[in-house]
Amino acid sequence: MDSDSDSDLELSPETLRALQQVMQEQQEQQDRFEVLRQQAEERFDQAQGGQAKTPILTMDIFREDWQLSQFWYDEATSEKLAREILNNSDANSIVCCISSPTAYVKLMSMDPPNSDNLFLFEFDTRFDVYGRQFIHYDYSKPLEFRLADELKGSVDMIVVDPPFLSEECLTKTLQTVRHLLKKDGKVVLCTGLVMSKIAKEDGLELTTFHPGHQNGLSNDFRCYVNYQSNQFPLKSQEESEQ
How does 101-132 read in b/e, with b if 16+ C-beta sit within 10 Å? Predict the structure, then answer.
């Protein structure tokens, strides 16, 4: 009985090799993130002397976690959102990307003039490799996050992509947006077409831009803004109602 049970539980050599490879890749990724975190701490120390330099990262090291409702933008969308931020900010601007890490990572790779004032609000702690510019964010607690008081009413531009396509998630995330945004601040919201009513109630109008995702997304995903944008022109009323 014992010998039969043991043999039944044994993995085949192929399965064992595949499992070992997966575990090795996971360990290598963990080791890489640990190195990046250490570098982030060193950058913070160097910043006191004006010598900090943020490393250029890509989304290749951040795998999608569908349990966290992560669906990364495709390259064209990331580029467009990052370019929109650059076109509407300067060295003194404070910018936040909320639950939009793909846009943030792309932006930070484009040598922005205000990198010290670019913040990523994100639940996934892998992104803490950005040091103090990473702010752990849980949409269910929209006003409970690091620097909540310091950033209140001071942010010039926000790009936001709520993690879940639900009224509760969008409503609470927009509460964070209102808390952070300065008067006449700019907002780019990426979410589903079904959220149009809630977006409009917050002064966000539907545009012609359709954000794309690396692995596709079945929902009708759209972009909304609260200002006149050359990259993201507003849809006409007739088009919006279609």
Answer: bbbbbbbbbeebebbebbbbbbbbebbbbbbb
